[in-house]
Amino acid sequence: MTGSARGVSIFGFAENTPAASATESVVVDPGCSATLGDFSNVNPLSLAGYTNITNDTAGGSVATGFVYGAGSALYEGTVSGGTVPTQDQHLTRKDYVDAKLDPAPVALTDAPAIATDAALGSHFRVTLGGNRTLGTPAHPTDGQRAVWELVQDATGNRTLTLGPGLGSTISSVTLSTGANRRDFLTAVHNAEKNKWYVVDFVKGY
User: Backbone dihedral region of 51: left (phi > 0), alpha (psi from -120 to 50 degrees) or beta?
Assistant: First the structure.
């Protein structure tokens, strides 16, 4: 594929017994784009352009640009499935407004140390079944704002300690004590400081 060819699709081809002079199976030159699928190649591919590959029976798949995942997630980058990718080849999740405009609260698992995966949303809800610690959220993005909805169980009087990555001006919180009452804690992530700054705590709902 050459000459700035665009939108080329090739499916179901098989390279069986290429001549000795053949050194590559499919060549995509810079400035071209193609989609390859359901094929088996003997010689290696040479993909200088933008090429998406699906169902490579020789043992690989390539997504160039972006792919959609579960839960309206969108990932960007280039990763090959033929070999174990290096860290810089991993797809990077991107959270766009259309996917996060009205997100449903993410239910967290109650545990002595409550874990939060910040990549899953921006509103997190958990019912406290004992005195707990809110761990430092994983997989944040710089500037991300997250809200935790903290609910007392039917017993009430549960306490919450903030993990080492949460705090600053508001370094601790005192929860409502009544059964089934809920409080809201808001924090903003700063990637340079590797810290979640707690900027608001509202209680008594």
Answer: beta
The per-residue pLDDT for range 144-176, each reduced to its tens digit, is 999 999 999 999 999 999 998 998 778 889 999
61-70 core/surface letters (b: 16 or more CB in 10 A; e: else): ebbbeeeeee
Q: What is the spatial distance between Cα 181 and Cα 175, in angstroms, rounded to a whole number?
A: 9
Q: With contact defined as beta carbons under 8 Å apart, do 15 and 45 qualify?
A: no
Per-position DSSP letters for 148-162, written without gaps between them: EEEEE-SS----EEE
- CA-wise closest residue to 28 among 10, 55, 54: 10
pTM recorded for the entire structure: 0.55
**CA 58 – CA 36 distance, rounded (Å):** 13
- 10 Å CB burial of residue 93 (0-12, 13-18, 19+) is middle
